[in-house]
What does this fold into?
Amino acid sequence: MRFEPPRQHPDRVVVAPEVSQPTRDPDQRFRVVGTGRPLPLRLGQIGLQPRAHIVGDRRAEQRLTEQRDALRLRRVGGEDTGAQQRGEGHRRQRAGGRSDGSGVSHDRIVPRYARGHKRGRPDRSPLACRAAGHLICAWMQIWRESAQKTVALRTGRGTVKHSRTGSDHEEPPVMNRLRSVLHLTIVLALAHCLGLGAALAEDGPVRFDGHSVVRVHLQTEDDLRFMLGVSDDPWAERLGVGVLDFRVAPDRMDDLRASGLEFEVLIEDVQTLIDDERERLNTRHLRAWFDDYRTNAEVSDYVDTLVNDFPHIATRHHVGTSIQGREIYAIRITGSGDDSGRRALLYTGGQHAREWVSISTSMYIADRFVRDYGADSRTTDLLDATIVYIIPVVNPDGYEFTWTTQRLWRKNRRNNPGSSFFGVDLNRNWGYEWGGQGSSGATWSDIYRGAAPFSEPETAAVRDFTLARDNIAAHVDIHSYSQLVLSPWGYTQTDVAPDACHLDGLAQEMADEIFSVHQKPYFAGPAGASLYVASGIGPDWFYGERNIYAWTFELRDTGQFGFILPATEILPTGEETLAAVLHLGESVAYADRVRFEGPDGPGESVAPSVNAPVSFDARAILGATLDDSTVTLHARVDGGAYVGATMLETSPGVFAGTLPAGACGQVIEYFVTAATTMGDTASFPADAPVNVFTLPVLDPDGPCLIPGDANGDGVVDFADLNIVLNQFGLTGAPGELQGDLNGDGAVGFADLNIVLSNFGAGG
It folds into this structure.
């Protein structure tokens, strides 16, 4: 690329260090000469020593400032730090280095990438950074030959300020022209190299030597802002005030200690865990499949093995293709026989690349289902009633990148247009409430939501796979870490899901099942209200858009190892997760797909000869659609035959009808039924007509007069017969005698006959 010399402009600045003495302090800041205004660029962050001078156009400098401000001052509740793209590792440069006689150490000037170091640095182009470093060196060499005594410059008028002799020095004309050409070149090269992301992949694994993971107690939003300035990598799924985990570079630990924030160190050295993991993976031999983590190729091959070994119950399905061309696939597992009417459950793993145990756990579920079918009655019964789909690796490109280059990478591997940052957070790219709080529009962010809902082929593929299968009733998105079972909603802390009672109840039941295996406690509750808001996540789309019950599992552990969970945890994590999956499957397989609430309207009783109104809430669940025309009210009076009447939808999900009238002392019984468009039927109460709703008919002005009820207690029994017999033959005014049941003024055989013919009534 050829750079045109910028036109001269009086609004040019020179950035000089605040101190003129050589220093290796990474906290040293630049300032604009003549103003003392600091720029948010730390020398340790860009690989320069304070004696280097950056000359640039004010507008280009302002863009750099804004971009670096965005990295240092994160927006609370929204923009994560893009940790895995940039890495952390802002190390102090070594004191020595190659010198060419100019008095400038090249090892101090050339950015770390030009020297091949990749300790926790971003996924950037080494070539671009190397070019930037050499441009700076060349400029420093020429300038030093021209003005040996100059340490800070001011452009536009050819005047040098703050020379070491204290006098002004007139710039040679050639330097004016040369500097104009180099201004833009240096600024643009540095802009690419300073942390604006990844245009090309690393040429080797990124390292995190000396980086710690700390758990910090954040009391205020200022605390959160401070930590987002200290750490480029929160290890929490959602950001907010509370207790959060962060990866912190060694040169920022002093800042954390000086802050006064309460914290504890969970992992002393992240790289030690990664090195141990790599060594184990590089030296492993033929071991049991779940003794260690597996590569993309190994996972795919094992799916083929299960399908080949158990062809009567397992098949492989193409889901889609990742942005780099890798296959996204599912394994379908169901029992023998006709499966056309079976409900399906979908499990997804590996949306976030660094969460390796989610992929291993997904595969463990598949492995146990196919191997236990026919051998374990519980598994056999479940698979004979349901279909299980498992997509073990939703993000194969990101997962591959964690094996080859950046173990802590989170996003997919999109080369974002117009940006040097790679990747979109797939679990912020789903189309329900996309773009809200808890996601970011900045490409450098680890929670970058993408350019549009379902902009990523990975999320679009899983969406289309789901839309093509209207029998999917439940979904679990498997992640790590923190030991959580989270229900919708994730996008809000205040709105309550329509089926919150059922969703939260099942979440707690699954957490209990997990605990029953190895006594690992999991917290259960709605994602947004229990933790922090995250919009555009998978489970919100499944539930909000497709009416599919959905949850997020955050697997082991609680922070001791975090994303670098030892391989010894794979099997116990899989075993306890399988217990939850079995319980969920049984709950979904046999549950009604229509949920009712009510009744509303009739009260505790109804007056004689009144047709009481009654209404119910009815809605389909578990991925079904309600057939409104099938919502029917069934009612009868005093044990007669039930008569059905179609209820009318008076508002969304609310259906109204009218009960038949009855006489005083009679009882009205009723229940409601409905069906889904797929033919699932449901009754309310669930065991109707064995158990039904009842509504007595009572006189609001007093007790009902039951023929033969001489004492008015509502029952015709021996007490009434005794009254008639004791008063038999007596006379008086009509209604004066209790035994005068027909009101003719005498107690006789007619009254006795009324008692005997109604004997037992009202009881």
Summary: The radius of gyration is 37 Å.
